[in-house]
């Protein structure tokens, strides 16, 4: 990534992913506070959370400081859906979501009566950006015989157009269920996850061609080389990764499933193919185990090849404190769109309950 601008304590980073609708997107990383400043900031945020009846919900991919702060203040660190469910069950009237925009929107859709704040509203996702609602609606309209299934990493408007919203850990049972009912599927936006689900289920799926700029960068040959150097390591892969990378996995799963694998498998070493923000959680839960990052460098790599999400990196202590102090960056979802999107999300939650999956921990990226 190329640093292009320093302004008002923010570092802007040009972001370019050729062949994807995110080629004009950008991410800006907040300044890292100094050590003494950090301690003061953390105390200030703790006080603000209390004063404002607010709870911090953070994604596994955000900065370790935010994950630790969420844990220390009675909030939660998890995947996107679990974050929304936690916010729904928690009595706090303000939810502070440290993650990316679709996570804040999902929290608002499920909790329309609550105030939802984010450190930076420009924290986005290439899957969301790569699936604009107008084009997606036209795609759906051109295939009216197909049931529309969308991944959680989409805008509220795209969710509102869908029949089902799914996350990576429940996508397969839902698609299998739809296949048993004789339904053909239109899937969006992640093509690799769609390909994986199609292979596993044998369903008739028409795929939108979106991708995650992080997972798309994992390289199969270099991963195979690393695996050969560490034959005792288990390879954990998120299914947003390319098929050749998924093929090398010992475990394929959502963030929550990969974390559980590090606790449950009889192994002391893991190669992890997902955003490296997750390593903080894995190391906290299993301090004696060894975690290696799957390679993103190698053939086909560019200057933007990296295993950390530029938009997740936009969340920091400084902009979190400012959002709380000034009531900045409140998520708004059009109530009509929100009500429609809620139907597709609740269909998934009801299905999860019917098959006995806990509704906490069935999350996505
Ligand atoms: S890691 Fe990928 S899927 Fe997750 S928010 Fe970033 S771009 Fe989106």
TrEMBL record:
Pfam families in the cross-refs: NadA (PF02445)
Q: Which cofactor does it need?
A: [4Fe-4S] cluster
Sorted alphabetically, the keyword list is: 4Fe-4S, Iron, Iron-sulfur, Metal-binding, Pyridine nucleotide biosynthesis, Transferase
Q: Which InterPro entries match?
A: NadA, NadA_sf
Is Transferase among the key words of this record?
yes
Bilayer-crossing regions? none
Record bears the keyword 4Fe-4S = yes
Q: Name one GO molecular function term.
A: transferase activity
Q: Which domain of life is it from?
A: Bacteria
Q: In which pathway does it act?
A: Cofactor biosynthesis; NAD(+) biosynthesis; quinolinate from iminoaspartate: step 1/1
State its Enzyme Commission number(s).
2.5.1.72
Can you say what this protein is called?
Quinolinate synthase
Its taxonomic path starts at:
Bacteria, Pseudomonadati, Pseudomonadota, Betaproteobacteria, Nitrosomonadales
The gene it comes from is nadA
